[in-house]
């Protein structure tokens, strides 16, 4: 269903590489969640071809890499991805 009041937004999964893991008592998952909380936009869930726009941190975080390297995979819209660049 198309509603002219909405601009459809496409979601992609991005892998955010944050470098090598440190040897100290660092919690990668907590850090990844904090970063995502800062960039996620509070948006209404919009169904588009049976795909839902993530509306929360748990919906957006796909995977937290904490063994081979420091990073995470997340479902983001373009504006959210651009915030990560800064």
From TrEMBL:
InterPro entries for this protein: S8pro/Inhibitor_I9, S8pro/Inhibitor_I9_sf
Ranges where the Inhibitor I9 domain occurs: 13-84
Pfam family, one: Inhibitor_I9
Name of the protein in its database record: Inhibitor I9 domain-containing protein
Native source species: Coptis chinensis
Lineage: Eukaryota, Viridiplantae, Streptophyta, Embryophyta, Tracheophyta
